[in-house]
Design a protein that fits this description.
The protein is of the alpha+beta class. The protein has nine helices and five strands. The chain has a five-stranded mixed beta barrel with strand order 1-2-3-5-4.
């Protein structure tokens, strides 16, 4: 198991990034909550990781905080919730927000996340209630992030990331049109688009 990676960010293509660790490039998939806190390409950073082994591939997932990784590991234990859906959940709601949704049985908020239907949302509320009690409570420090770096083609990167998160092309175009023109970075575009989707 690979517990963490410490190295230089070689590329960022949400939800994929490449970490240069001692000359080896690791492809890592990360939720948007992690991307929001990443420094610019070329900068050093550390990611907490989780390796998923499948028959056809080994997929490495990276997280900016221990809290994100711990929640990811609990989510993939829920029936019919695989790594992709867990990544979408972490991209659509913060660790603290997910705790609140489960505690208040807020199924409606979970259903707004791409890939989460009503039955899955209800299952998450039921199955995660006890699991969350076993986790350390989310720390406010998890929200402290380093300013994200600028992307070379922010609009196209944001479009690709939203498609990868499960949104349909027409919906992605609508969400990106709602983003203020003053927003220039990929991460901020995605953040604003996800906020629009959550409030729809």
């Amino acid at each position: 198991m690979i517990g963490f990676l410490r190295g230089r960010i070689a590329a960022k293509h949400p939800p994929l990034l490449v970490m240069d660790v001692a000359g080896v490039g690791y492809e890592v998939e990360a939720p948007m909550s992690t991307f929001y806190g990443l420094p610019s390409v070329g900068a050093e950073t550390t990611l907490h990781t989780h390796l998923v082994v499948r028959e056809d591939a080994h997929v490495l997932f990276g997280f900016g905080t221990e809290g994100e990784r711990a929640l990811f590991r609990e989510l993939i234990k829920v029936s019919n919730v695989g790594p992709r859906i867990a990544l979408a959940i972490l991209s659509g709601v913060s660790v603290e927000g997910f705790h609140r949704c489960v505690e208040s049985e807020d199924v409606a908020s979970l259903v707004r996340i791409p890939g989460i239907g009503r039955k899955t949302a209800e299952r998450l509320v039921v199955e995660m209630r006890d699991r969350l009690k076993a986790l350390a409570p989310p720390q406010a420090a998890d929200g402290a992030r380093v300013a994200p770096g600028e992307a070379a083609t922010p609009h196209s990167e944001a479009y690709s990331a939203l498609i990868a998160l499960g949104y349909k092309p027409p919906e992605v175009l609508r969400l990106l049109k709602s983003v203020d023109p003053s927003v220039k970075s990929t991460e901020e575009m995605i953040r604003h688009a996800l906020r629009s989707a959550a409030s729809a």
